[in-house]
Automatic annotation (TrEMBL):
<dbReference type="InterPro" id="IPR050471">
    <property type="entry name" value="AB_hydrolase"/>
</dbReference>
<dbReference type="Pfam" id="PF00561">
    <property type="entry name" value="Abhydrolase_1"/>
</dbReference>
<dbReference type="GO" id="GO:0016787">
    <property type="term" value="F:hydrolase activity"/>
</dbReference>
<dbReference type="InterPro" id="IPR000073">
    <property type="entry name" value="AB_hydrolase_1"/>
</dbReference>
<feature type="domain" description="AB hydrolase-1">
    <location>
        <begin position="42"/>
        <end position="272"/>
    </location>
</feature>
<keyword id="KW-0378">Hydrolase</keyword>
<dbReference type="InterPro" id="IPR029058">
    <property type="entry name" value="AB_hydrolase_fold"/>
</dbReference>
<protein>
    <submittedName>
        <fullName>Alpha/beta hydrolase</fullName>
    </submittedName>
</protein>
């Protein structure tokens, strides 16, 4: 039976119903889900700070999986994956490569959101033959403007969420305008659509290690991004508080083969707020 088929042999077409599977490599048992067609180059999703499998917007996953095989996974020590979470982006990238190769893939497209976009940049440099195309969303380069402040912002908005009885993502991912607030509510509702076989939440120690890794990334010396020759789609909202939108412009300027999409009145979760537009752009870019 094919891995991305359910027990009846049907192709899995909805993230809500994609079974959680595991593969063991490098001493780690990685939890993952896959869906969409079996043929073509798979798109591996690399997720954001504190996120597990259930934090991907099902509209984004399902939209891209309509055309491409999509694989989402928990990195080492996160959610249902075993091991302890690394404290550097570079070590996370190494684990991601171990996972991708364990599934038998020798060529993939990468979609990295926020911290995942940092990991994707490293993979494109350490294992260039593995990567065909890159989508970098809500992210920034090593040493990028304001990235070292992610820890402070995350803590502040977590407290703010507790006081207002709201999910901190409402503040971290969306603007405080009427449209931004509404988009946040709709996104958070979509994250609850899956009711069976949900992933384990990230542990406090893993979250702390991820924050350390992002902080280090923010303090690093800028890398020579001209070595990344692959086509890259860079996307973000125009008002990203977590990884300031300036970083998206900076990435697009420094990557030799890039294009940039900026969504109006949107923040860190711009691709979730504008999921229809993002999916159309991403699919067109990947199919090119």
């Amino acid at each position: 039976m094919n891995d991305s088929q359910d027990v009846r042999g049907h192709e899995v077409t909805s993230y809500k119903n994609a079974p959680t599977r595991t593969v063991t490599a490098g001493g780690v048992t990685f939890a993952y889900r896959e869906l969409g067609p079996r043929s073509g180059v798979p798109v591996v999703f690399l997720t954001h700070l504190a996120a597990v499998l259930d934090n991907w917007d099902p509209r984004v996953v399902d939209g891209i999986a309509g055309k491409r095989r999509v694989v989402t996974f928990d990195n080492r020590g996160v959610g249902a994956s075993t091991g302890s979470t690394p404290r550097t982006i570079q070590a996370m990238a190494k684990d991601a490569v171990t996972f991708v190769r364990a599934l038998g893939f020798d060529r993939v497209d990468l979609h990295g959101l926020s911290m995942g976009g940092m990991i994707a940049q490293v993979i494109a440099q350490t294992d260039p033959d593995l990567v065909r195309r890159l989508i970098l969303t809500g992210t920034g380069p090593a040493g990028g403007e304001g990235i070292k402040n992610v820890t402070l912002l995350s803590h502040l908005d977590t407290v703010r969420g507790l006081f207002t009885l709201q999910d901190p993502k409402q503040f971290l991912f969306f603007t405080r305008t009427a449209a931004g607030r509404q988009a946040g509510k709709e996104f958070l509702a979509r994250l609850k659509e899956r009711t069976q076989d949900r992933d384990k939440a990230i542990s406090p120690i893993s979250y702390s290690n991820q924050l350390k890794a992002i902080h280090r990334w923010g303090l690093e010396r800028p890398q020579d991004l001209s070595v990344i020759r692959q086509p890259v789609l860079v996307a973000n909202g125009e008002s990203d508080r977590m990884v300031p939108s300036q970083n998206s412009y900076d990435l697009a300027r420094r990557l030799p083969n890039s294009e940039l999409v900026i969504y109006p009145d949107a923040g860190h979760g711009g691709i979730f707020q504008f999921h229809r537009e993002f999916v159309a752009t991403a699919v067109e870019f990947l199919e090119r």
